[in-house]
Amino acid sequence: MKIRNLKNLPVFDRDSAQVIGRVEKVVVGDDFRLAYLVIEIAEGDPGMVVRQDLEIGEASVTINSTASIKSYVAGEELSIYQKKIGDTVFDREGKELGAVSDFILSRDSMKVWGVEISSGAIKDILQGREGVPLEQINWRTPESAVLFDEGSNDDDYQVSGV
Prior knowledge:
By secondary structure, this protein is mainly β. Helices cover about 10% and strands about 45% of the residues. The chain has three helices and 13 strands, in the order H-E-E-E-E-E-E-E-H-E-E-E-H-E-E-E. It has helices spanning about 5, 80-85, 120-125; strands at about 10-15, 20-30, 35-40, 45-50, 55, 60-65, 70, 90, 95-105, 110-120, 130-135, 135-140, 145. The chain has a seven-stranded mixed beta sheet with strand order 5-6-1-2-3-4-7. A six-stranded mixed beta sheet has the order 11-10-9-8-13-12.
Protein backbone atom coordinates (compact mmCIF):
# COMPACT_ATOMS: atom_id res chain seq x y z
CA MET A 1 0.00 0.00 0.00
CA LYS A 2 1.31 3.44 -0.87
CA ILE A 3 1.91 5.71 2.12
CA ARG A 4 -0.19 8.49 0.59
CA ASN A 5 -3.14 6.07 0.45
CA LEU A 6 -2.96 5.59 4.22
CA LYS A 7 -3.71 9.26 4.84
CA ASN A 8 -7.37 9.91 5.61
CA LEU A 9 -8.20 6.22 6.09
CA PRO A 10 -10.75 5.73 8.86
CA VAL A 11 -9.46 4.37 12.18
CA PHE A 12 -11.74 1.63 13.52
CA ASP A 13 -11.78 0.71 17.22
CA ARG A 14 -12.65 -2.99 17.68
CA ASP A 15 -13.44 -2.46 21.36
CA SER A 16 -16.26 0.02 20.73
CA ALA A 17 -17.02 -1.09 17.14
CA GLN A 18 -16.82 2.51 15.95
CA VAL A 19 -14.79 4.68 13.64
CA ILE A 20 -12.98 7.03 16.01
CA GLY A 21 -10.98 9.13 13.60
CA ARG A 22 -8.82 9.32 10.47
CA VAL A 23 -5.13 8.88 9.70
CA GLU A 24 -3.53 12.32 9.59
CA LYS A 25 0.17 11.47 9.20
CA VAL A 26 2.39 8.43 8.65
CA VAL A 27 5.81 8.36 10.31
CA VAL A 28 8.43 5.97 8.90
CA GLY A 29 11.63 5.36 10.88
CA ASP A 30 15.18 5.34 9.54
CA ASP A 31 14.93 1.53 9.46
CA PHE A 32 12.20 1.92 6.78
CA ARG A 33 9.56 0.48 9.12
CA LEU A 34 6.33 2.18 10.02
CA ALA A 35 6.99 3.85 13.39
CA TYR A 36 3.51 5.18 14.15
CA LEU A 37 0.43 6.85 12.76
CA VAL A 38 -0.88 10.21 13.89
CA ILE A 39 -4.65 10.10 13.94
CA GLU A 40 -7.17 12.89 14.02
CA ILE A 41 -9.67 11.83 16.62
CA ALA A 42 -13.28 12.89 16.17
CA GLU A 43 -13.39 14.12 19.76
CA GLY A 44 -10.23 15.69 21.11
CA ASP A 45 -6.63 16.31 20.22
CA PRO A 46 -4.70 14.20 17.71
CA GLY A 47 -3.20 10.99 19.04
CA MET A 48 -0.61 8.49 17.89
CA VAL A 49 -0.70 4.72 17.58
CA VAL A 50 2.51 2.70 17.30
CA ARG A 51 2.74 -0.04 14.65
CA GLN A 52 2.46 -2.86 17.20
CA ASP A 53 -1.03 -1.65 18.18
CA LEU A 54 -2.60 -1.41 14.72
CA GLU A 55 -3.54 -3.38 11.64
CA ILE A 56 -3.72 -1.88 8.17
CA GLY A 57 -6.53 -3.11 5.96
CA GLU A 58 -7.63 -2.21 2.45
CA ALA A 59 -10.12 0.41 3.57
CA SER A 60 -9.29 1.18 7.20
CA VAL A 61 -6.79 1.03 10.05
CA THR A 62 -7.92 -1.08 12.99
CA ILE A 63 -6.90 -0.79 16.64
CA ASN A 64 -7.99 -3.09 19.45
CA SER A 65 -8.78 -0.36 21.95
CA THR A 66 -8.60 3.39 22.41
CA ALA A 67 -6.13 2.64 25.22
CA SER A 68 -3.52 2.13 22.49
CA ILE A 69 -3.80 5.79 21.47
CA LYS A 70 -0.98 7.77 23.05
CA SER A 71 -0.70 11.49 23.51
CA TYR A 72 0.71 13.28 20.51
CA VAL A 73 2.40 16.61 20.85
CA ALA A 74 2.65 18.14 17.38
CA GLY A 75 6.26 18.50 16.42
CA GLU A 76 8.77 17.79 13.76
CA GLU A 77 9.28 14.08 13.34
CA LEU A 78 12.43 12.88 11.69
CA SER A 79 10.53 10.63 9.30
CA ILE A 80 12.58 9.17 6.47
CA TYR A 81 9.43 9.52 4.36
CA GLN A 82 9.52 13.32 4.31
CA LYS A 83 13.30 13.28 3.78
CA LYS A 84 13.22 11.02 0.72
CA ILE A 85 10.13 12.19 -1.21
CA GLY A 86 11.36 14.14 -4.21
CA ASP A 87 14.84 12.59 -4.27
CA THR A 88 16.21 12.10 -7.78
CA VAL A 89 16.81 8.50 -8.88
CA PHE A 90 19.43 7.62 -11.50
CA ASP A 91 20.33 4.36 -13.19
CA ARG A 92 23.92 3.04 -13.03
CA GLU A 93 24.86 4.89 -16.20
CA GLY A 94 23.74 8.23 -14.77
CA LYS A 95 20.44 8.54 -16.66
CA GLU A 96 17.81 10.29 -14.55
CA LEU A 97 14.85 7.97 -14.07
CA GLY A 98 12.67 10.35 -12.07
CA ALA A 99 11.91 11.32 -8.50
CA VAL A 100 10.74 9.32 -5.50
CA SER A 101 7.03 10.07 -5.27
CA ASP A 102 5.95 7.64 -2.56
CA PHE A 103 6.93 4.65 -0.44
CA ILE A 104 5.21 1.29 -0.87
CA LEU A 105 4.45 -0.29 2.51
CA SER A 106 3.89 -4.00 3.13
CA ARG A 107 0.75 -4.16 5.27
CA ASP A 108 1.85 -7.46 6.83
CA SER A 109 5.36 -6.55 7.95
CA MET A 110 4.70 -2.76 8.20
CA LYS A 111 8.02 -2.29 6.42
CA VAL A 112 8.67 -0.27 3.30
CA TRP A 113 8.82 -2.74 0.41
CA GLY A 114 9.81 -0.27 -2.27
CA VAL A 115 9.58 3.22 -3.69
CA GLU A 116 7.41 4.68 -6.40
CA ILE A 117 9.26 6.71 -9.03
CA SER A 118 7.59 9.52 -10.95
CA SER A 119 9.10 10.29 -14.35
CA GLY A 120 7.03 13.41 -15.06
CA ALA A 121 3.34 14.09 -15.58
CA ILE A 122 3.08 13.05 -19.23
CA LYS A 123 5.10 9.85 -18.85
CA ASP A 124 3.25 8.98 -15.61
CA ILE A 125 -0.11 9.35 -17.38
CA LEU A 126 0.94 7.37 -20.44
CA GLN A 127 3.01 4.63 -18.79
CA GLY A 128 2.16 4.81 -15.08
CA ARG A 129 4.59 5.22 -12.23
CA GLU A 130 7.20 2.58 -11.60
CA GLY A 131 7.49 0.71 -8.30
CA VAL A 132 11.03 -0.36 -7.43
CA PRO A 133 12.01 -2.71 -4.58
CA LEU A 134 13.88 -0.96 -1.77
CA GLU A 135 16.79 -3.41 -2.15
CA GLN A 136 17.53 -1.88 -5.57
CA ILE A 137 17.90 1.67 -4.21
CA ASN A 138 21.10 3.17 -2.86
CA TRP A 139 20.92 6.72 -1.57
CA ARG A 140 24.31 8.14 -2.52
CA THR A 141 23.59 11.64 -1.20
CA PRO A 142 20.79 13.09 0.92
CA GLU A 143 19.02 14.12 -2.30
CA SER A 144 19.75 11.38 -4.82
CA ALA A 145 19.84 7.64 -5.27
CA VAL A 146 21.18 5.08 -7.74
CA LEU A 147 19.03 2.21 -8.95
CA PHE A 148 20.84 -1.03 -9.65
CA ASP A 149 19.76 -4.26 -11.29
CA GLU A 150 18.21 -6.91 -9.09
CA GLY A 151 20.76 -9.53 -10.10
CA SER A 152 23.77 -7.30 -9.55
CA ASN A 153 26.52 -8.69 -7.37
CA ASP A 154 28.25 -5.33 -6.96
CA ASP A 155 28.63 -4.99 -3.19
CA ASP A 156 29.01 -1.23 -3.66
CA TYR A 157 25.35 -1.02 -4.67
CA GLN A 158 23.42 -2.05 -1.60
CA VAL A 159 20.68 -0.24 0.27
CA SER A 160 22.41 2.22 2.49
CA GLY A 161 21.25 4.39 5.34
CA VAL A 162 20.90 8.08 4.96
